[in-house]
């Protein structure tokens, strides 16, 4: 590990190359199942000193320079196992928010095991009455001695069924205006008082869940940021989420087939599909493939440049839909009749059905455009008549 920290960028490049060529394949050899493979990959990464490159050393990271991180981006593109998506919420969103805003004891407790992939996390923001209008949440957290007692309902909670922790938004002051009475808490999932009910999607998978909280308990000091500063924390985490669900998720290994709603079908796989179906000489198919290839290349450049998170999110959504639409043209209506590869059919059918959800999860396309208009272009903000009214006085369903 010390090799990594003291390495020059050129030495670091060799270490990263050796990791992907030798250490990682050996660590994944014989490991099956998405969660097991995800955990094996993260453990190998952490143990090689390659996790948390920009995290301070005292919090389990490597404290490396921007130059080292550029080397990592260069050498890791296309090689990260697609099972990394299991940690999209912990590594991609919760841990950077804890790193930037958590108290020291929270950082010490959660960052090292989180970077090593020992725990899976989920994100409990959305509620039946609060999605785009997230500040309208009504899940309640009240202090009882050394614990918060949490009651309410969350929905669309991705991965809750596999998670050990949730990053939770709860209302801690109903008399404050809606944006000012919210707190971000870390909720242990494996306890009485937390009931997870999977929702079956049209893909046949159950990736997200309803979660019922009935006097669930959270230690008093498992707060991220300050009590009642949860809105600022929520916005900070959402910025990481848009990076994660935008261009970051597209640097993963395109040779692997993964049913994940966060990653568009890689173009290489569509080229192979077109060849297998004997459609690779059709002009419109070739045009579609060329457009997608261009889109994927642009994503690569956006990753290197570090674009506004909402641009990345909108781009990934557009790429995901276009890739799924081309897959649908290649797969249907007649081709399943002569395909004898059921696994292939299932894989593409999943992406064709799932891609619409990309424009919702992590904030809808309309909300991304509002964000770009207001924060990037400086257009007038949407009117917010309820901004200063105590939440308890607001009309609710
Ligand atoms: C695949 C997937 C995974 C998800 N995972 C999670 C998760 O892990 N954790 C979690 O907390 N949530 C999760 N969500 C929920 C997601 O964040 C919400 O679906 C999203 O924020 C939209 O909220 P809503 O569904 O309540 O729609 P609504 O907010 O009711 O929106 C309905 C429609 O109105 C539009 N709209 C609303 N407000 C405005 C406005 N101000 N301007 C313009 N148009 C507007 C929206 O764009 C949308 O088209 C997930 C959703 C999906 C699809």
What does this 3D model show about the protein?
The chain is an alpha+beta fold and 397 residues long. The protein contains twelve helices and eight strands. The chain has a four-stranded mixed beta sheet with strand order 1-4-5-8. Strand 2 and strand 3 (147-158) form a beta hairpin. The termini are far apart. Flavin-adenine dinucleotide is lined by residues 122-126, 131-132, 156-158, 208, 261, 357, 360-361, 363-364, 366-367, 370, 382. Flavin-adenine dinucleotide (FAD) binds at residues 122-126, 131-132, 156-158, 208, 261, 357, 360-361, 363-364, 366-367, 370, 382.
How many structurally independent domains?
Answer: 3
Helix-residue proportion = 40-55%
Helix-and-strand structural type: alpha+beta
Shape: globular
Unreliable runs, pLDDT <50, ≥5 residues? none
Enumerate how many helices there are, as a single number.
12
Largest sheet: 4 strands, mixed
Nearest-integer average pLDDT: 91
- Order of strands, main sheet, comes to 1-4-5-8
Strand fraction equals 5-15%
Our measurement of the CA-to-CA distance between the termini, rounded to an integer number of angstroms, reads 54 Å
Radius of gyration: 22 Å
How many runs of DSSP E, i.e. beta strands?
A: 8
Q: Which ligands does the model contain, each kind named once?
A: flavin-adenine dinucleotide
Q: Give helix and strand order, one letter per element, not per position.
A: HHHHHHEEEEEEEEHHHHHH
Topology overview:
Layout: H1 2-5, H2 9-28, H3 34-47, H4 66-76, H5 90-101, H6 104-115, E1 121-124, E2 140-144, E3 147-158, E4 165-171, E5 182-188, E6 194-198, E7 208-219, E8 223-224, H7 230-244, H8 267-276, H9 283-305, H10 309-331, H11 342-354, H12 365-376
Parallel strand pairs: 1-4
Antiparallel strand pairs: 2-3, 3-7, 4-5, 5-8, 6-7
Helix pairs in contact: 2-3, 2-4, 5-6, 5-7, 7-10, 8-9, 8-10, 9-10, 10-11, 10-12
Bound molecules: flavin-adenine dinucleotide.
């Amino acid at each position: 590990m010390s090799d990594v920290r003291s390495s020059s960028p050129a030495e670091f490049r060799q270490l990263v190359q050796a990791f992907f060529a030798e250490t990682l394949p050996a660590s994944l050899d014989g490991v099956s199942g998405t969660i097991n493979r995800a955990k094996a990959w993260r453990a190998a990464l952490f143990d090689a000193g390659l996790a948390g490159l920009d995290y301070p050393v005292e919090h389990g990271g490597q404290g490396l320079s921007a130059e080292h991180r550029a080397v990592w981006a260069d050498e890791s593109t296309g090689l990260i196992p697609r099972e990394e998506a299991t940690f999209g919420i912990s590594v991609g969103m919760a841990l950077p928010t804890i790193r930037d805003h958590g108290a020291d004891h929270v950082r010490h407790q959660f960052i090292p095991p989180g970077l090593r992939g020992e725990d899976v996390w989920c994100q409990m923001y959305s509620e039946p009455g609060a999605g785009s209008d997230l500040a309208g949440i009504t899940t309640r957290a009240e202090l009882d001695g050394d614990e918060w007692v949490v009651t309410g309902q969350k929905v669309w909670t991705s991965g809750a069924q596999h998670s050990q922790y949730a990053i939770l938004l709860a209302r801690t002051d109903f008399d404050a205006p809606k944006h000012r009475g919210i707190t971000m808490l870390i909720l242990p999932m494996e306890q009485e008082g937390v009931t997870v009910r999977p929702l079956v999607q049209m893909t046949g998978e159950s990736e997200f869940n309803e979660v019922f909280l009935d006097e669930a308990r959270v230690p008093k000091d498992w707060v991220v940021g300050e009590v009642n500063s949860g809105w600022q924390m929520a916005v900070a985490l959402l910025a990481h989420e848009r990076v994660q669900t935008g261009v970051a998720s597209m640097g993963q290994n395109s040779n692997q087939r993964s049913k994940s709603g966060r990653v568009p079908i890689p173009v290489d796989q569509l080229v192979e599909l077109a060849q297998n179906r004997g459609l690779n000489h059709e002009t419109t198919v070739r045009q579609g493939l060329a457009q997608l290839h261009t889109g994927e290349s642009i994503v690569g450049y956006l990753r290197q440049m570090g674009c506004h998170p909402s641009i990345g999110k909108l781009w990934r959504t557009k790429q995901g839909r276009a890739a799924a639409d081309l897959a649908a043209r290649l797969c249907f209506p007649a081709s399943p009749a002569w395909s004898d590869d059921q696994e292939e059919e299932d894989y593409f059918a999943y992406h064709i059905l799932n891609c619409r959800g990309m424009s919702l999860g992590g904030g809808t396309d309309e909300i991304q455009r509002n964000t770009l208009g207001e924060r990037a272009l400086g257009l007038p903000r949407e009117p917010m008549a309820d901004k200063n009214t105590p939440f308890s006085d607001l009309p609710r369903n």
